[in-house]
Design a protein that fits this description.
By secondary structure, this protein is an all-alpha fold. The protein has helices spanning 13-48, 55-80. The relative contact order is 0.15. The mean pLDDT is 88.
């Protein structure tokens, strides 16, 4: 394993807000898109099966279910992102 020379920076309010904002807006945008797609597909299928009154409920559940993988993928991308003055690194405690 290659050890890199690193220096740590303080996690102050501004850096924390930058990380949070980066995660938040990506999750909202990507989550809305996947929720729209999954919700429309679920509602359409339930409508075709003759239960259009359940379309909204099924669409909502599928949309929410789609949020979990989206939030995980967005978190991964944020953790790998190089911010202007810092990067996020995982460091072994051992």
């Amino acid at each position: 394993m290659v050890e890199l020379e690193t220096s740590s920076v303080e996690l102050n309010k501004n850096r924390l807000l930058r990380i949070w904002w980066c995660y938040f807006w990506r999750t909202v945008v990507c989550g809305a898109l996947i929720g729209l797609v999954l919700g429309a597909i679920g509602g359409f299928i339930v409508g075709l099966l003759g239960k259009p009154e359940l379309g909204g409920h099924v669409g909502t559940l599928l949309g929410y279910a789609g949020q979990v993988p989206v939030s995980i993928l967005v978190l991964k991308s944020v953790l790998q992102k190089r911010f202007k003055e810092f990067s996020i690194r995982l460091v072994s405690n051992g």
